[in-house]
Amino acid sequence: MDIHVSNINKSFDQHPVIKDVTFTIPSGEICCLLGPSGSGKTTLIRLMIGAITAEEGTIHYGDVQIPNLSVLKNVGLMPQNEALYDDLSGEANLYFFGGLYDIGKRDLKERIEEVLAIVDLTEHRKKLVKNFSGGMKKRLSLAAAILHSPKILFLDEPTVGIDPVLRRSIWEQFRMIKNSGTTIIVSTHVMDEVTECDQAALIYNGRLIDYNTVPHLLEKTENGRVEELFLMASTQAKGGEDS
Ligand SMILES: Nc1ncnc2c1ncn2[C@@H]1O[C@H](COP(=O)(O)OP(=O)(O)OP(=O)(O)O)[C@@H](O)[C@H]1O
């Protein structure tokens, strides 16, 4: 199911935050929303899952216009700040989130085993979340987001505050999830992470300044560094109309 974002405009308090954004994310790929802090990545994710509505433009999953409750069961979200229960164990958190989906008791037990193994938390399953490290919380939050085997998975800055070694292992997990057929949309402001993705949407000041496959984007730069594309965009914005 491709995701079509067409001419989206969104303002908060009359202040435009997303400005005429149009792009299509091909099914089964990893697409990153790359941009500096405050550029509009979280807002775009909230629009794409239907949590907020745009003033102008449309978003479709395949032929289905968003927001649409019936497609929500196919969507997973790992929010920027983990929404976990500190006083419950890792496993108990997953039982809680599993209860929100339509998964039978026995299937849920099996699926919890599976996702704990995917995020490498099986041996810590009984530990209370308040005693988890930051990285373990991120991994548990990822486990909760994929519990219902979503076809589309949104990850909002999933590797913030994560050390490089753990970041690598988390990206391996994303690739495993992609290989199982899930489309992944991941926001980041870490330029290096773009090379892990198939497509990248470069967001700057609420505008989509470029969208292409990662090799195509890197070809446009002199040194193969994504930062250059943002530097070019900021120079253009200073000379142009952008607010
Ligand atoms: N609910 C809201 N009400 C008012 N302004 C908002 C709201 N949500 C976001 N904004 C503003 O919209 C702009 C984009 O914010 P957004 O969180 O989408 O950026 P971001 O790229 O995800 O940033 P970060 O990387 O820091 O998370 C910011 O100026 C922010 O202050």
UniProtKB/TrEMBL annotation:
Gene3D superfamilies: P-loop containing nucleotide triphosphate hydrolases. SMART domains: AAA (SM00382). GO terms for molecular function: ATP binding; ATP hydrolysis activity. The keyword Protease does not apply. It comes from the Bacteria. Residues 3-230 form the ABC transporter domain. This is ABC transporter family protein.
